[in-house]
Amino acid sequence: MVKVTDATERIAHWILAGSCLFCLISGLGLMFHAWEIIPTILGGYYATKWLHIFSGVIFGMSLAYAYYMWKKDCEFEPDDMGWIMQGGGYLWPTDKLPPVYKYNAGQKAFFWCIVIFGALIVLSGLGMWFSTALPVVAARWAYMLHAMSAFVIGSFFVVHLYLGTIGNPGTVQAMFTGKCSRAWCQTHCPRWLEDHDKNQVA
Amino acid sequence: MKNMDIVKLIDVTKCTACRGCQVACKQWNELPALRTHNFGSYQNPPDLQWNTWTLIRFQEYVDKDGKFSWLFRKDGCMHCTDAACVKVCPSGSLYHTEFGTVGVHRDRCIGCKACVTACPFDIPRYDAKSDKVSKCDLCYTRLLGDQKPACVLSCPTGALTLGDRDTMVKKAYKRVAELGGNANVYGDKFVGGTHVLYVLQEPPAVYDELPEHPKMPATVLWWKNFFKPFTLIGMGGVAGAAALHYLIKGPHEVHENKEGGE
Fold first, then answer.
1. Domain count of chain A?
2. Which residues of A touch B217 (CB under 8 A)?
3. Which residues from chain A sit within 8 angstroms of residue B258, using beta carbons?
4. What is the ipTM of this complex?
5. pLDDT (tens digit, 9 = 90+) per residue, B52-106?
6. With a CB-CB cutoff of 8 Å, which residues 114-133 of chain A face chain B?
């Protein structure tokens, strides 16, 4: 087994993911009147508003930490275009997939999507929280951009959930024990594994 | 008044700015008065507040011929048919009543302030202390009891009248024809028709704080008619696509003894 993540990464991931998921669920409860069951379980609409805000603050802080932690790993490189042109090997058989370093282009895209739309949803959320302090046009845009970001993050979140679990057997361990099999590393991050082995020897 | 589409007509040409409606509103709705500051006008308080749901605006106006007039306008909720505040309210606090007016379930308000920015007439007011928003509900409980709203009951000049929609629209246009000049009816031509109509002596643009072309903000339409459904369509669509991928293509298996990328 190869250690692919450290404990800090895993804890940061779960705080980010947990607060994001909680915001998503409570936010859907506030968006759809038909889903009153969600605010009811959370203690009513008023409690849901504050839980959503607090969870959003935690999301914002963990997002800032995750950005500094992973931004270097997620810088795009020229080979990423080749990976994307081959659909990451997920959609049709291919043997032209460029070998990946730590994260593939899809994972990097997910990271930057969460950074950009996460920042947008946090800032627009702050704008909604303090909307009476803003010019009315800015406040109106905040509500709209918050909904837009929720749409983007919610959709991409499902992709992440599928590819991180049943879509790629053996992957989910990276965020629990932090250890994946050597074969998994050779499949998903071969260039990183080479460096990793060199460092081990040294 | 049961099951009637109710309209309150405000004929500003008959208003003497006695502010009886402002006081009656406070009295019936048990709204406290707060200390205000004189800013050189009889208009008091200076603006609508969480505890002031209707306000007579005093405006000194000189037209292009140099003719001076003192304009009085009773400001307050317009009770839109196509109400932005109802559309954005997450908790169902704001709702359309059987009279076509916009009611408030105060206990359900969570103080999110979405309605405050969405309203094209800038009516709802937020109170930080109670963390709730309030506005005129056209005395919903009085309407239920077949009584006129407190403001209408108090009006000594007949500037405020109440009735069913068709009657009041006809009455408004009849009055405008009598008045002549720039007189016009304000409220029947936008946001699905408001349940408060004005007979104005001057064009709408002349009046302070009165939007010339009020409409549901475009941001609200994008938010509620596009991004809201698409959040579900997006998440559901992706989940469906993932399930199909799993069933058709299968998971991305790791192969032992394989060198390099797949």
1. 1
2. 140
3. 183, 186-187
4. 0.92
5. 999 999 999 999 999 999 999 999 999 999 999 999 999 999 999 999 999 999 9
6. 128, 131-132
